[in-house]
Amino acid sequence: MLPLRTHNPAKTFLGKxxxxxxxxxxxxxxxxxxxxxxxxxxxxQFHCLLKDDIPSASRPPQFxxxxxxxxxxxxxxxxxxxxxxxxFPGTIHRSEKPFFLLSPEERYALxxxxxxxxxxxxxxxxxxxxxxxxxxxxxxxxxxxxxxxAGTSRFAxxxxxxxxxxxxRLHPHAPDSVALLESSGLDLSxxxxxxxxxxxxxxxxLDSGLIGRGSAAKWVAFQGxxxxxILLKSFLQLTMPPWLARTPARLPPTLSGFSAFTRCxxxxxxYDVKCLxxxxxxxxxxxxxxxxxxxxxxxxxxxxxxxxxxxxxxxxFFKITELYxxxxxxxxxxxxxxxxxxxxxx
Length: 346
Description:
Blueprint: H1 18-33, H2 60-76, E1 79-87, H3 104-117, E2 122-130, E3 141-142, E4 155-162, H4 175-183, H5 188-194, H6 198-208, E5 218-221, H7 225-238, H8 255-266, E6 270-272, H9 273-276, H10 287-293, H11 306-324
Parallel strand pairs: 1-5, 5-6
Antiparallel strand pairs: 1-2, 2-4, 3-4
Helix pairs in contact: 2-6, 3-7, 6-7, 10-11
Cofactor: a divalent metal cation
Subunit structure: Component of the CCR4-NOT complex, at least composed of CRR4 and CAF1 proteins.
InterPro entries: CNOT7/CNOT8/Pop2, RNase_CAF1, RNaseH-like_sf, RNaseH_sf
């Protein structure tokens, strides 16, 4: 196991929040020690959770089992795509000005206010892979089946993690958002009782090698500002000293600080499907509407469940790249897909 806390006297200015600055240094130390070696795992050992419904890895023993599969798969291949979605109890802070009139700094301040005061409910992660020729490796169950492209099959591994952080009786939330999640089949009493801490997800991503030094992963979300902010907050919580462990972590005070943390964790290979849509004539709306416009059928699970939404993001992303960016490549300086490293609204 890697050390969770280190001390580094070096000084790098990321704003006036000393706690954020200290965490940044701790992240750098963690990544310096992160192993880059691939595990020698045979194809027969791969595990897939694509079924009619996507089960949640919730209880600690089950989480440990799924974490083992997750780490084995993540370390086996060098060019993974990581599709992420989170579920959280709505937004409780609103701006008096219309969203489109807000500057990027004001939009980040609004995002920070919400993420600082909210607790996540669920995290969904879908992994896809490319071989040395940048073509998808065919493993597991077809994630793109029924998307209208009979000549192309996409293969993915999807996990859905219930989190215990949120208690509807104690923590701030938007009642209409909570009602929507419950109507989609999310049992909040069960996630509170049987879920795992969000810091476990942060630890899992560290151990898998999908983040930090040496990672070639490309992270994709749909309108992903809140998704990446929630993951970042869980990492900040993980690195807090013991005497502050019960104090909720807070995001960096500035957009530039947030961007620095995001690059440190996830690298520059971030794609937001909502940004890609700027180059796609006729595409508009949320994830479900965009999928309908592209004639992409949800492969598993239900809407407003993190695992299923991360999988649908995977399907939509590859469909968009096929239709609108055909022939362009991923990887290093040859990456020609636009809006790399940008999050919608920020």
